[in-house]
Amino acid sequence: MQIIQKLDSILKDALKEIEDSKSLPSLEGLRVKYLGRKSRITAVLKGLGALPKNERPSAGKASNEIKRKIEGALEQRKEQLSRDIFDGIATTERIDITEPGVQGPKGSLHPISQLSMEIEDIFMSMGFSIAAGPEVESDYYNFEALNIPPDHPARDIQDTIWTVDQTLLRTHTSSVQVRTMETKKPPIRVVAPGRVFRYEETDASHEHTFYQVEGLLIDRDISVANLIAVMRTMLREVFKKDVKVRLRPGYFPFVEPGFELDISCHLCNGKGCSVCKGSGWEELIGCGLVHPNVLSKSGIDPDVYSGFAFGMGLDRLVMMRYGIDDIRLFHSGDLRFLKQF
Ligand code: FA5
User: Fold this and answer.
1) What is the domain extent for residue 35?
2) Span 304-339, pLDDT tens digits
3) Mutation choice for ligand 1 from 213, 252, 261, CB with most ligand atoms inside 8 A
4) Of 92, 119, 148, which residue is a domain's last?
């Protein structure tokens, strides 16, 4: 039968070309050429109608078989070519694991983070643990529980950035004092380093976003002498020598008595400069004995327990330790500054 001979000759040509093809795109071309709508097989099949009726089934069957054979040959060749390509990559693109790598630039911890971690270690060696609280805080924890009710004039001392619904960006880490007293029973010894925010104009020693380390110690018979001893120990550890400090009366509604602890300005050796505003002293720590109202509001009996609290300006401490003359450098993103630490 003429049609069967034609199909056999197409099959022979197809198998030869498939065998000789060297790439996946050329194989795809052959699939279109031999099995596509404009292929020779399709043309042959169109002539089936002209055959006598009894010859048509065997011719149709033969053409299907040839198509299957071509498909099988294409699939086999594709697998072979893919394997060859993969083997080629494996030999030409071998990785030399002995080749030295390229070292990317290395960052380092910010000086504030470095000192914060050091301070945590110093206090941990004195038996303190580390506490933390949220930066977005409620009016209650930032003010009210600290003996600063609404309309109290002391609210004006710290210019506040309010968000919504009596919520604010905490103006000091003292909010962590209250959260700690609510959840821990005395004796309590914690420090809480953290970021605080104030709606405040900046200058060489003032930032709107800065860091404080809060400290709280509550036990029986705690006095100002204990507070001073702990402050001195901490400063000696930070500066590796005794540093000149002075204690002044200070007003914070959540302590009684309250103090401001100043450190002799390390930038001008006490002579007076733009950081200490010519005074020779830099205000570093607000502190005092925890007010009985604050203790009882947090469920601690002020007749049994007393305690001290402090809030230290961490940025200023870093400035004094390294002789940095402008607090704004910390957030400037200036790599020349940061690379020195
Ligand atoms: C307070 O924030 C009190 N919460 C401190 C405190 C805690 C008192 C516990 C009593 C008991 P003050 O606003 O003074 O107080 O801030 C404390 C320290 O943070 C200052 O001594 C100073 O070192 C630092 N500080 C204050 N304002 C700024 C500022 N704008 N920029 C950088 N550091 C600041």
Assistant:
1) 2-92
2) 999 999 999 999 999 999 999 999 999 998 989 998
3) 252
4) 92
The predicted-structure confidence for 139-196, as pLDDT tens digits, reads as follows 999 999 999 988 888 777 778 999 988 899 999 999 999 999 999 999 999 999 999 9
Contact 315, 309 (CB under 8 A): no
| pTM score, whole prediction | 0.73
Mutate to test the pocket of ligand 1, among 119, 205, 212, 214 (most ligand atoms within 8 A of CB): 212
Residues 201 and 306 in one domain: yes
* Shared-domain flag, residues 144 and 84: no
